Amino acid sequence: MARCSIAKPLGGTTTAAPHHPHRCGQLPTSAAASPIITTRTRRLSALSKPPPPSLPLFPRPKLPIPTTSSDAPTNGKQDNSKELNTVSSRPSSGAGDVLRLMDVLCVAADEDVYISLLKNSVDTSEVATVHAHIKGAAFPLPLPLANRLLLTYASCGDTVAARKVFDEMPVKNAFTWATMVSAYSDGSLHNEAIRLFSCMMCHEDLAADVRDCSIVAVLRSCARLGELSFGEQVHAIAIKARRVHGDTGSSLLQLYCESNRHDSARQVLETMRCSSSQLEPVPEAAWTSFMTACHRDGLLDEAFDVFRDMVSSGDARSSFSLSTILAVCAESEKHGWFGQQVHADAVKHGVETNQFVVSGLVHMYANQGRLADAARAFEGVGGKPDVVCWNAMAMGYARGGWYREAARMVYQMKAAGIDPPGVNVVRMACAR
C-alpha cells in the first residue's frame, strides 16, 4: 500500500527528465540553441523562395545625360517629378544614344557610321547632334559626308543650318548646289533660289553638269514669283542640255501655263512628245496641267485637243486626268458625246468608282440634264461618297426640277453627318 501511495497525480508538477548526453539525435533544450535554429530556418525558407524574374533581353543602356548647373536642385534634394517630366518631354534621339554609347565604349565612328545616322535622323536636333559629334571628334569632312549632312538639314527644313554647312564646304559639286537650290525653293525662299542658281551657272564646270532637280526647283520658284524672263533663260539651258523631258518638261509647261503663255506651253509639250520614249513617256502631270490651264482660261476646244493627243500618245491615264477632262465636258455644250467616251475610258481603266471621277461624271450628266445617268454614276461610287459627290447630285436634282429627289438627298446627307454649303442652295431651289 505504501508503494501505491507514491504514485504521481495526473495534474501534478513533474520533474525534468535526466539529461543523457550520449543519446544521438536529441536536440538541446537550452535557450542558447534557439538562435541556431532560427538561422537555419531562415536559410531553409530563403532557399525555398522562387527565383526573381529574369531581366528583359537587350535592355536599353542607361547612358549619361549631360546636365547644366541650372538643372541641379538648389535645396540639395532631387526633384524626381521634375526630372521625369523633363525626360519625357524631350524627343528621343537615337543618333545621340548611339554616339554616346560609342564614346563610352571608346569606339571611333567612321564616315559610314555618320552617314547611316544622318539617313535615319528625323529632326533637326538629331542632325545637330551628329554634326556636333563630327566637329568634336575633329573628323575630316569628306565630300560625300558633307553632301549627306547638307541634304539632311535641307530635308528637315532648316535652311539656315544648311546654308552654313554649304558655306563651310571647301569643295562643292553639282549635287551640292542642286541640294541648296532645292532647299531654298522648298522653303519658299524663291529669290534666294534664283540668286543661288545664277551663281551656280557662273561656274563653267557646274553649268555643263547641271542637275534636273536644280532646274525643276528654280523653275518652280520662277512660277511662284512670276519671273517669266528668267524662266525662259532656264528653258534655254534645258534645251542646250537636252533636258526638256520628264519633270523638267513638266515644270517648264507649268511655268508657261501659269503665265498664260499657251503657245509656249504647246511647244514644250510637242518637244516632250518628240523626245519621249517608252522608257520615259510624257508625265501625266504635264498633260493635266495643260488641260487645267485651258479650262481655267476658257479654251475648252484646246483642252479637248490636248486630251486627244494624250490618248493617241498611249500615255497612262488615271483619275486625275480623267476628272480634269470631265470638268471640261461639264461646261461644254457641243461636246456631250465626248463625255460619254471619257466615261467609257474610265471604265476601261477601272477608275469609274473613284470619287473624283464620280464627282466629274455626276456634274457632267447633271449639267446636260441626264439625271438618270448621273444617279447611276452616283450609286456606283466605291466606298462612302464624299461631300463633292453628294453636293453635285443634290444640286443636279435641284437644277433639273426634281425637287423631291433633291430634298431626299438633303435628308440623306444630314443622316450621313454632312452639311456642305450647297445645302442652302438646294433648299432655296426646292422652296420654289
From TrEMBL:
<dbReference type="InterPro" id="IPR046960">
    <property type="entry name" value="PPR_At4g14850-like_plant"/>
</dbReference>
<feature type="region of interest" description="Disordered">
    <location>
        <begin position="1"/>
        <end position="94"/>
    </location>
</feature>
<dbReference type="GO" id="GO:0003723">
    <property type="term" value="F:RNA binding"/>
</dbReference>
<feature type="compositionally biased region" description="Polar residues">
    <location>
        <begin position="66"/>
        <end position="92"/>
    </location>
</feature>
<feature type="compositionally biased region" description="Pro residues">
    <location>
        <begin position="49"/>
        <end position="64"/>
    </location>
</feature>
<keyword id="KW-0677">Repeat</keyword>
<dbReference type="Pfam" id="PF01535">
    <property type="entry name" value="PPR"/>
</dbReference>
<feature type="compositionally biased region" description="Polar residues">
    <location>
        <begin position="27"/>
        <end position="39"/>
    </location>
</feature>
<protein>
    <recommendedName>
        <fullName>Pentatricopeptide repeat-containing protein</fullName>
    </recommendedName>
</protein>
<feature type="repeat" description="PPR">
    <location>
        <begin position="283"/>
        <end position="317"/>
    </location>
</feature>
<feature type="repeat" description="PPR">
    <location>
        <begin position="386"/>
        <end position="420"/>
    </location>
</feature>
<dbReference type="GO" id="GO:0009451">
    <property type="term" value="P:RNA modification"/>
</dbReference>
<dbReference type="InterPro" id="IPR011990">
    <property type="entry name" value="TPR-like_helical_dom_sf"/>
</dbReference>
<dbReference type="InterPro" id="IPR002885">
    <property type="entry name" value="PPR_rpt"/>
</dbReference>
<keyword id="KW-0809">Transit peptide</keyword>
